[in-house]
């Protein structure tokens, strides 16, 4: 091969490799995106089936119960408009408390219980995960709106 | 009074930075030696002023001056002195002061170790660093002042976050910042070379030890952070692909690529334009990393909205530094000539491959870290990118890179022969394949990733051994020991650093392949066995620490009837911030760690407990330290110390050795 052709082959190979890498990366990216939903969105059925996602909200006061094995816990996450029951097996993070914000990752079970594979905690007592703060704000805004227009939402 | 002195010192430092960032660069442009000579004293003066400010803040922490807002919000009267001092970098304002202080430390180092540089080059380097420092000082003085007063003074401080009360807090941030800021030297060298139009081999040789030094600090800093997360967070993980971690990993990847590309520029005069781009990239990512972590952008992009001035300043500063240097690059780089040509099979080509792969890895981390922020900022929804993404992407990208790592050092510059390389490496390859296939069965488990990891690790070690052996056997007539001693330190540095990667890979592979994690409920007296170790729970006692109360679990560990150790994990409660914290107990060993942490108390004196058996986990950090050690060896090579003197003699001897403007 002449040097010129050689260079073309080299550049061609490089481009092909780059394209393959890009496809692989984007594919992995696409299949590992985890979306965040509020309890209202869960109740409205906007969430994907059979795919992992995150929910966030306040852990309802007095909702935390423990099964006999000591590890499986049930609690309710709410955005003050809708409530989603959550089940988690494992040790909860230090900052998990009733009446505080929490984010959980997992899948929605057939009975409407969110089966969490992970419960996330942040590092500060006063800290409200921003997703949770926004979910609460959204639900509140919606509530205010519907009451001002006197539209009763069918449950 | 003292905080005001600190504040005033910062203002003076700002004035000095203005001088340092303008006069020497202008002087270098017009060839005025008097203006250029301003750079050195200005840099030293700035160091003293920022040091003074830093000490003033330290003093305010030491004497518990809660009339300083920053002191009141990050420390507490019960906090021991060393943590009060470490609290200097416990939050946003103080970390920026630390950043600036470290920048002046690097500037000071440049003034001392730049005797061999041409005056104009040094003036430009210090000028560029002065400009960077100017940006940071302006930021601190306008929107993020650590000396801001709190009137009336607080009775007591809000205390440092309990997670930060740890020796890791004392070491990790300064180390990491030494690395981040160290890349500013490589950046300043690159910008200075662009300004002066003398991008040549000499420039690369000068900036190599600086880049390597920064890289070593960053490597150790990241390893410390990872180790800290491992024992402090109570989850037993060592890397979570958390955005905060990625923020420090991206400059590391860019820096690693930069070191290798500098080697080509130094030895062969090639890749110049690319090297400059990497230097800009490494420093830009360091800036992005600092701000991502410290400005609260990562917990939420909306942190910008809470203090819009701060967020705006950061964006403008990043735009000026990154945009400005890229514009300069676009303007100047095309004038730089190409280096020598090379064949498809040659050391240059393999280093190019290494660079492409590292940058691709960098790109994928960048995508996974910043895309969610971007989406959120656009109001298009909230997403997060899970660790599986990074794992899936990294294995296929790093596998060829590590394969090349074995061959590259043996290949000749310019043109190498593939059959010849194959012949020289056949034993290394054979031994690696056999290890990869047989060792998992000896260990009792086979998975593709386990084999792959072992293959890569033994490939690195065996090819390095072949490389050293070839070098030694070429030196005829000397004993092996004296032949080993004659090999240059830079060469040993490379071998050691590469072997560090092998150690790291062994650690990761063994942990991923063989770790046992168990969450369970344990009653008093109950036992559980994992990884051959039997843990017996002997109950919990309540203890009182200096600023916390804790439940302290007692575990007795035995193996095959023999006592191994007793472990005491704690569940602490810090009353000032009303915060609970899990303090894991870890029994460290060369071949395995045992890890116990307490969950929650359950009825009847039982506790939920986390038991981990982590084989070879310490090899992960050991590997990082070995890599850094290799870097230290490389940068202390004689040729860098002699480079200046030899350069001058070369210039006078030869017509045009490395470039027109070296003298």
Layout of secondary structure:
The complex is a heterodimer of chains A (155) and B (663).
Chain A: H1 3-31, E1 33-37, H2 39-43, E2 53-59, E3 65-66, E4 72-78, E5 83-89, E6 101-108, E7 114-120, H3 130-148
Parallel strand pairs in A: 1-2, 5-7
Antiparallel strand pairs in A: 2-4, 2-6, 3-4, 4-5, 6-7
Chain B: H1 2-30, H2 33-36, H3 39-62, H4 69-74, H5 81-86, H6 92-112, H7 119-143, H8 167-196, H9 201-232, H10 243-268, H11 272-294, H12 303-306, H13 308-332, H14 347-377, E1 383-385, H15 387-407, H16 418-443, H17 448-474, H18 480-486, H19 489-514, E2 516-522, E3 527-530, E4 533-544, E5 549-559, E6 562-567, E7 570-574, E8 579-583, E9 585-587, E10 592-601, E11 607-615, H20 618-635, H21 638-653
Antiparallel strand pairs in B: 2-11, 3-4, 4-5, 5-6, 5-7, 7-8, 9-10, 10-11
Helix pairs in contact in B: 1-3, 1-7, 3-6, 6-7, 6-8, 7-8, 7-13, 8-9, 8-11, 9-10, 9-20, 9-21, 10-11, 10-14, 11-13, 14-15, 15-17, 16-17, 17-19, 19-20
Quickly give the CATH architecture of the largest domain in chain A. Beta Barrel
Shape of chain B: globular
Strand content of chain B: 5-15%
CATH topology of the largest domain in chain A: OB fold (Dihydrolipoamide Acetyltransferase, E2P)
Assign a percent range to the helix content of chain B: 55-70%
CATH class of the largest domain in chain A: Mainly Beta
**From the structure provided, what is the oligomeric state, counting identical versus distinct chains?**
heterodimer
Largest β-sheet summary of chain A? 5 strands, mixed, barrel
- Give the total of domains of chain A: 2
Number of helices of chain B: 21
**Rg of chain A to the nearest angstrom?**
23 Å
User: What would the average pLDDT of chain A be, to the nearest integer?
Assistant: 78
Going across the biggest sheet of chain A, name each strand in turn: 2-4-5-7-6
Based on Cα principal axes, name the global outline of chain A: elongated
Number of DSSP strands of chain A? 7
* Number of beta strands of chain B: 11
């Amino acid at each position: 091969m002449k040097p010129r052709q050689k260079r073309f082959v080299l550049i061609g190979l490089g481009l092909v490799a780059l394209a393959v890498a890009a496809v692989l990366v984007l594919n992995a990216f696409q299949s590992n995106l985890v979306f965040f939903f509020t309890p209202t969105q869960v109740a409205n059925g906007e969430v994907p089936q059979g795919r992992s996602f995150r929910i966030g909200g306040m852990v309802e006061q007095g909702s935390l119960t423990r099964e006999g094995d000591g590890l499986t816990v049930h609690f309710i996450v709410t955005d003050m408009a809708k409530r989603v029951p959550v089940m988690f097996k494992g040790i909860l993070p230090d900052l998990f408390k009733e009446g505080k914000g929490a984010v959980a990752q997992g899948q929605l079970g057939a009975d409407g219980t969110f089966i969490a594979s992970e419960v996330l905690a942040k590092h500060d007592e006063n800290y409200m995960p921003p997703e949770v703060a926004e979910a609460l704000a959204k639900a509140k805004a919606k509530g205010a709106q519907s009451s001002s227009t006197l539209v009763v939402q069918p449950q | 009074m003292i905080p005001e002195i600190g504040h005033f010192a910062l203002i003076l430092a700002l004035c000095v930075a203005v001088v340092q960032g303008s006069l020497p660069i202008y002087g270098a442009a017009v060839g005025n030696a008097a203006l250029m000579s301003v750079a050195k004293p200005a840099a030293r003066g700035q160091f003293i002023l920022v040091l003074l400010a830093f000490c003033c803040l330290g003093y305010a922490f030491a004497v518990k001056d809660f009339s300083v807002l920053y002191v009141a919000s990050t420390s507490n009267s019960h906090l021991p002195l060393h943590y009060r001092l470490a609290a200097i970098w416990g939050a946003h304002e103080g970390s920026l002061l630390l950043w600036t202080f470290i920048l002046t430390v690097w500037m000071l180092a440049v003034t001392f170790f730049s005797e061999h540089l041409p005056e104009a080059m040094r003036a430009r380097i210090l000028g560029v660093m002065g400009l960077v420092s100017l940006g940071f000082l302006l930021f601190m003085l306008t929107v993020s002042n650590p000396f801001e007063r709190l009137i009336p003074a607080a009775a007591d401080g809000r205390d440092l976050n309990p997670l930060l009360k740890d020796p890791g807090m004392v070491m990790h941030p300064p180390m990491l910042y030494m690395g981040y800021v160290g890349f500013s030297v490589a950046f300043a060298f690159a910008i200075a070379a662009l300004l002066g139009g003398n991008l040549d081999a000499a420039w690369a040789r000068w900036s190599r030890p600086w880049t390597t030094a920064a890289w070593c600090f960053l490597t150790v800093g990241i390893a410390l952070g990872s180790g800290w997360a491992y024992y402090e967070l109570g989850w037993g993980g060592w890397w979570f692909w958390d955005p905060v971690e990625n923020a420090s990993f991206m400059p590391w990847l860019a820096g690693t690529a930069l070191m290798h590309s500098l080697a080509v520029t130094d030895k062969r005069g090639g890749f110049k334009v690319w090297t400059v781009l990497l230097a800009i990239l490494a420093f830009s990512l360091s800036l992005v990393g600092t701000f991502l972590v410290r400005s609260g952008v990562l917990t939420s992009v909306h942190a910008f909205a809470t203090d819009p001035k701060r967020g705006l300043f950061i964006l403008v500063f990043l735009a000026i530094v990154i945009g400005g240097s890229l514009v300069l690059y676009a303007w100047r780089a095309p004038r730089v000539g190409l280096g020598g040509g090379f064949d498809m099979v040659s050391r240059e080509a393999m280093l190019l491959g290494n660079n492409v792969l590292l940058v691709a890895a960098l790109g994928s981390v960048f995508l996974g870290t910043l895309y969610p922020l971007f989406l959120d900022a656009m109001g298009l929804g909230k997403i997060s990118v899970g660790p599986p993404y990074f794992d899936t992407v990294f294995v296929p990208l790093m596998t060829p890179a590590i394969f090349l790592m074995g061959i590259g050092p043996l290949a000749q510059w310019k043109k190498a022969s593939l059959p010849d390389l194959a012949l020289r490496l056949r034993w290394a390859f054979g031994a690696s394949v056999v290890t990869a296939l047989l060792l998992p069965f000896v260990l009792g488990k086979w998975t593709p990733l386990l084999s792959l990891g072992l293959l890569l690790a033994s490939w690195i070690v065996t090819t390095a051994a072949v490389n050293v052996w070839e070098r030694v056997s070429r030196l005829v007539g000397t004993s092996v020991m004296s032949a080993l001693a004659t090999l240059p330190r830079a060469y040993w540095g490379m071998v050691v650093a590469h072997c560090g990667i092998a150690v790291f890979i062994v650690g990761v592979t063994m942990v991923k392949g063989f770790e046992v994690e168990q969450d369970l409920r344990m009653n008093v007296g109950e036992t559980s066995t994992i990884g051959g170790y039997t843990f017996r729970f002997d109950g919990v006692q309540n203890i009182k620490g200096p600023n916390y109360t804790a439940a302290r679990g007692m575990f007795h560990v035995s193996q095959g009837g023999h006592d191994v150790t007793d472990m005491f994990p704690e569940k602490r409660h810090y009353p000032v911030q009303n915060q609970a914290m899990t303090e894991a107990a870890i029994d460290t060993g060369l071949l395995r760690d045992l890890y116990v942490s307490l969950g929650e108390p359950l009825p009847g004196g039982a506790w939920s407990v986390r038991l981990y058996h982590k084989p070879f986990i310490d090899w992960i950090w050991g590997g990082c330290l070995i890599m850094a050690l290799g870097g230290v060896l490389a940068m202390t090579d004689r040729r860098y110390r002699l480079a200046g003197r030899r350069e001058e003699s070369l210039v006078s001897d030869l017509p045009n050795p490395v470039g027109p403007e070296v003298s």
